[in-house]
Design goal:
By secondary structure, the protein is α+β, with helices and mostly antiparallel strands. It is 38% helix and 19% strand. It has one domain (3-220): 3-Layer(aba) Sandwich (L-fuculose-1-phosphate Aldolase). This is Methylthioribulose-1-phosphate dehydratase.
Length: 221
Amino acid sequence: MTFANISLEEKQQVLEQLRQIKQQFAAKSWFPGTSGNLSMRVGDFDPGHFYFAITASGKDKSANTPEDFLFVDKSGRAAETTNLKPSAETLIHCEIYRLTGCGAVFHVHTIFNNLISEWFGDQGAVPAQGIELIKAFNIWEEDAAISIPVLPNFAHIPSIAERVENVLNPAVPGILLRNHGIYAWGKDAFEAKKHLEAFEFIFEYLYHSILLKNSLHQASR
């Protein structure tokens, strides 16, 4: 499959879905500054040959313009002639697609995912147990427990991308960068959005749970 073989209709459908998701997340203030990035795969998947649309670098994601997204190949290179630059973190998206074959990857920076990733950063993972939203990941065991990986936030993006394979767990569709943000993915935009929202609920729950436990501990002394 080449990029030229993918229909214009399919490309436009992917771009429209990304615009809608971008608007919804911007309304939640999940893109402070020009942070965050969204991507969706287009066409068939082959680990050695695939394409996806991703947010262009340095754009205000609260606004919609014809230059918000571009298409790239499996290596993060532009799939067609353009003056746009892909997000600086495109290589991380490339690795997640290659390893999972997923249909969409969403990355946002929030206060809660930053604080929780820093709190548990030295452990290398965020433990969560008995939280209702774990069911969003199709995990239905009573009092289910998951571990959400945390990677170091290197300025050198390839150093992050090369560590993705070592920590990625297909059963837990998310990876945190320490004091940076969450990457969540799914088979399509709907599932990736569901997973991202579930992670954000879990992070906020854990944050308040930690504060409550510390307050009760102080009060009992």
